[in-house]
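Quick question, first post here. What does this chain look like in 3D?
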Amino acid sequence: MEPLQPIIAVIGPTASGKSAKAIALAQEYDGEVISVDSRQVYRTLDIGTEKISKEEMQGILHHLIDIREPEDAYSAGDFVVDAKKLIADLHARGKVPVLAGGTHFYFDALIYGLPEIPSDPALRIELEKLSTQELFAQVLAKDPRRAGMLDSNNRRRLVRALEIITLRGAVPERVQREALYNVQWVVIDPPKEELRPRIEERLLQALQNGLIEEVRQTRERVGDARLNELGLEYRIVGEYLRDERTEESLLGSLSVKLWHYAREQKKWLRKLASLENPTEAS
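> Answer (accepted):
Ran it through. Tokens below.
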């Protein structure tokens, strides 16, 4: 058997400093960065996704950023195809692939594989007739474990989950733990007393930098249903734009929900630590 291709995987919760660490590693090992972020693939979603700037990249090439329009879908399967090609290309050029991002499901899909469950077009047509609330209610009733892992406002993922549940009875847990790459895990996991103030500081900066206007323009372009699929920053600011909440409530609500998201990311890190013995970044 051929040896597994080596990659460096920089992981951690939101606002933990993954981007800066990835750049430092790419500089040290003559590498390039592959973004593992389900939203930074979209052009124009800059402030809400905390997209890294050209200046911050410090001359290090970054991949899988700004490759889709916000109207377009981009799935874990799409990411796996793109990332595999990039990893092979980087190795062919003598470069080290440094993968960094907060979409841990994408890491799982790339490194451990996705369950191969074909789509059912006729079933999808029927599921698309349901409201987002009805979709989530059905997923919750039929597969509570999977429901707890999903954004209740993300129609695309809810439809896919309910499709799999209908075909298989439940969304299967990944049983393969044999990695498809030789992974050097680099974990950045600040304690709560450090991380939560960082999240609030970033949010405040995002609002000052024009987050509301970015969401307004995105909403005008893609509509409310798609806006809700683009992440909680866009969904919550969208509620303000629809007069469903006050501007004063934005910072507090976003802070609470992002901290909850960070806690879920930390749970994934703990699960990884029990299986892989990753390296803690300094």
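Residues 204 and 251 are 7 Å apart (CA to CA).
The first helix runs from residue 18 to 29.
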